[in-house]
What we know:
Elements: E1 3-10, H1 15-35, E2 42-48, E3 51-57, E4 66-74, H2 79-89, E5 98-102, E6 106-115, H3 120-133, E7 159-167, E8 174-175, E9 179-180, E10 183-184, E11 188-190, E12 199-201, H4 205-214, H5 221-238, E13 241-243, H6 247-254, E14 261-266, H7 276-287, E15 290-294, E16 304-309, H8 318-342, H9 353-359, H10 366-376, E17 380-382, E18 386-387, H11 388-406, H12 412-423, H13 430-434, H14 441-449, H15 454-462, H16 477-496, H17 510-523, H18 537-553, H19 558-564, H20 572-586, H21 589-610, H22 627-648, H23 652-660, H24 663-672, H25 680-697
Helix pairs in contact: 1-3, 5-6, 7-8, 9-10, 11-12, 11-16, 12-15, 12-16, 14-15, 15-16, 16-17, 17-18, 19-20, 20-23, 21-24, 21-25, 22-23, 22-24, 22-25
Amino acid sequence: MPDLLLELRSEEIPARMQRKAAGDLKKLVTDALVDAGLTYEAAREYWTPRRLALDIRGVTARSADIREERKGPRTDAPEKAVSGFLRGAGLESVDQATVKSDPKKGDFYVAVIEKPGREAADIIADVMPGIIRNFPWPKSMRWGEASAKPGALRWVRPLQSIICTFGPETEEPVIVDFEIDGLKAGNITYGHRFHAPQAITVRRFDDYVEQLERAKVVLDADRRREIILSDARNLAFAQGFELVEDDALLDEVSGLVEWPVILMGEFEEDFLAIPPEVIRLTIKENQKCFVLRPQGEPGALTNKFIITANIEASDGGGEIAHGNGKVVRARLADALHFWKTDQADLPDLDMLSASAAGFDLDLSKPLDQRMAKLDALNVTFHAKLGTQGQRISRIRNLAHQLAPAVADASDLPAKADRAVLLAKADLTTEAVGEFPELQGTMGRKYALLQGEAPEVAEAIEDHYKPQGPSDVVPSSPVSIVVALADKLDTLTGFWSIDEKPTGSKDPYALRRAALGVIRLLLENEIRLPLLQFGVSEDLLSFFHDRLKVYLRDKGARHDLIDAVISADADDLLMVLKRVEALGELLDSEDGQNLLAGTKRAANILAAEEKKNTRIAGVVDAGLMTEPAEKSLSAAIDEAENTAAAAVRNEDFTAAMRALGELRRPVDAFFDDVLVNDEDQAVRANRLALLRRIRSATETVADFSRISG
């Protein structure tokens, strides 16, 4: 079966757009083929900085002939209805329709529409101009003389050539004939713009890839990525260093080059006085280069860095490395200036005295100065929630309340208070102004430099965490208190002004904040009654929704979560323990049989309640005649008492185990006892006994919500 090769070659496509654009191209083309009645066996997209390519294998050579019968109105229908039917079917008169009879509906018109199949190459030629013209680039441009004309082609960068060949492997493929804005599809492409600028004639995908490789173009982005990583590791190792790996940067640089060549640059060792995080970000953001560290020293860096060039230079890359080094040195000089400036006194200390007094800050310390400045500048956190200074005051109060719930340590409240006080101070530093992603990280470094306790410095860095489902969760008490206070203030604040997530919109990352609170509590096994810390019932419901997502991601059954969670369940750790205990019970044979018996009891009760059958208010032992009902009543008494005591002790496993003991007496009751006895008093008593089964199990879970 024929294969389709497509290449759209242009000037450089921004790296961040390449992968999505290639995926969009594959979807648009394959959808168009299928919509036109073609099928294919496999399709794969490729991209480089200068081209998007598709390899579609096993395309049907021709779409199938179509014969369709379209039913119309009755033959005696109004003329308007008949005319509409004829227009829709593409018929000129009723003479071109056939008449069919239905015993119930009478005679009606039928249009037989026959559409002959089309050659695949013709279909491709028809759909490609529209796909190219309407391609969903986030940003696009016009160029050249044609750009002044209405409807001129727009592309992310000037489109330079199109390859479109089609044919089976055993035959010479044809060029699919189409044109857009004077650019005609062909079988000509060009390799590396410097190493191989000559025209290349291609036939099908395999020789296209081979010829590009000879022309210094690696088409496969994953392979370019592997080459960069492997060569960078090897060059670093050869020089006695280790590569500081960065997946995001690796993805980006693999989209900047067609022929990756790895080089090493350097800068003066004096710049190593700058924190490693700042050096790494400076070199990454400005030059898209990797940094290196001494082997076996994860916290340190060397004065070398890795460059990914797009050319094999005649001088071995010396001039490229030198040029990159000049830029890196200039940017590191700026970073060194930021680093030193942030440790020096602010020039306007006399204007910060009021803020310093209000927050009990020490203006002899640089980070305290920055916190005073943050307050004095009245930096707005949110128009309805006040300034950053006001927010810090709220978080301090919340941290003071939270500290006893997190750990019983006499110095915890004071350390947590100090950490909260300085947590946002680095927002006014030069380093964070240049690199916002370093907020928290720089706060920790500056805190240690001015002699803060290590736990305080750690909490300053960690209070933003966790920032997602895979981020590290703080585990030291000071960090936990500050992180919880920060997130709870955010959530309660935005809930108080009715700024809640809606659908896919969550501009203040409140879902992430709620997940952060959940992970901090559960993964550190902290008991915290959220309703006592400003959480409203509505916000608690939001926590419940996030908790369900978190637990489901951990493998918990959704029905078990629903069975144990109640509207006022504000101790999330206890919810987790209930879910775990219920899961253990239901994994056992006793649990499964108890569930079946409980559901049977509930179903009988529901049916009788619907019929308004009388059910006794309490179970009367004097009306019991069968041994099985007497045994069940006694077992319920025992299970209720034992389970209630276990729940009071928060031993949910023991509570579930106590309920599990009901399995056999419940089974025996249903085997040996007729609930709907002819004696109405006996029946009412036995229904009351079934209600006791339901109420006994509800002490730990709502069994009606459990599937199975």
